[in-house]
Design a protein that fits this description.
This protein is 0% helix and 66% strand. The chain has 282 residues and is mostly beta strands. It folds into two domains: 128 residues, lipopolysaccharide transport protein A fold (Sandwich), CATH 2.60.450; 128 residues, Sandwich (lipopolysaccharide transport protein A fold).
């Protein structure tokens, strides 16, 4: 765990004062400041994060309330990884943890953006958590749901329930059709590995095809722009027009538009024509 040294700069009118964070609230009296800049450093002296606000209200119990929060975290090279903004923020001076409320927006260095109404940010665990609805957008990727746990860079996230993911390759000039996947949740996504795992009442829809399963693993290309493969496990059902196929497992190659069924499939069929799915079973 990195040791973080808090250095606080308070700018009030023309007076500038540098203080350590633990000096705030001396005597148990609330203090208010205009212009707030809180910085944290790692063991090597490099800046690990900073938090700014239009005003700060240093309250009893070691809590600082900020208005119009603008926070950043940095990697070891000093490059910004994440920007966080919110209407209101609360910082615990002892732990450095922060709670953000109202119009919370997280933007990663890759451009991934998360919007929600409240967020708890644990700096020691490097986690952001919320029980509210979340909306995550990337280039051609949209994720909605309720409740979330994620790393601040949003590369790894878990959406707890009521999940909906839409992947639109046409944003990048691809001819592939848009895919929409819903599930009761939870859903986990790992952008580094290019995989998302959905559980409980999973439904994937693409160009008139409906694929259902208890569990679905979705594999993306390196840029998370196109779905390459879906692995479906448990009570698999494929519907295309009036045709239906059932199995215990299905592997769908989205590039070749080829579906392989296994686990006592009840029906195997080949649909003729452009955009057909060829199905095989064992």
């Amino acid at each position: 765990m990195r040791k973080q040294i808090l250095v606080v700069s308070i700018f009030c009118l023309t007076l500038t004062t540098s203080l350590y964070a633990q000096d705030f609230g001396a005597g148990g009296q609330d203090q208010q400041f205009q212009g707030f800049d809180l910085q944290g450093f790692n063991d090597d002296g490099g800046k690990a994060w900073d938090v700014k606000g239009d005003s700060a209200d240093v309250q009893g119990g070691g809590q600082i309330k900020l208005n119009n929060v603008n926070a950043n975290s940095y990697d070891e090279a000093g490059q910004r990884q994440v920007n966080v903004t919110a209407e209101t923020g609360y910082i615990n001076q002892a732990s450095g943890n922060m709670r953000l409320e109202k119009d919370v927006i997280i933007t990663s260095e890759k451009g991934t953006q998360l919007l929600t109404e409240s967020l708890d940010w644990s700096r020691d665990e490097d986690l952001v958590l919320t029980e509210d609805e979340v909306f995550i957008t990337d280039d051609g990727l949209a994720v909605t749901g309720s409740g979330m746990q994620a790393r601040p860079g949003l590369n790894n996230a878990e959406i707890k329930k009521d999940v909906r993911v839409t992947v639109d390759p046409k944003v990048h000039g691809s001819d592939a059709e848009k895919v929409t996947i819903t599930s009761d949740g939870p859903m986990t996504i790992d952008q580094g590995k290019g995989v998302a795992v959905f559980v409980d009442n999973v439904v994937a829809v693409q160009e008139g095809r409906i694929l259902k399963a208890d569990r679905m693993e979705v594999y993306f290309d390196q840029e998370m722009q196109t779905v390459k493969e879906l692995i479906c496990i448990g009570n698999v059902e494929l519907t295309q027009g009036e045709n239906q196929t059932y199995a215990e497992k299905a592997i769908y190659n989205a590039i070749e538009q080829r579906l392989v069924l296994s686990g006592s499939p009840k029906l195997i069929m080949v649909t003729e024509g452009e955009g057909a799915i060829t199905s095989t079973g064992n």
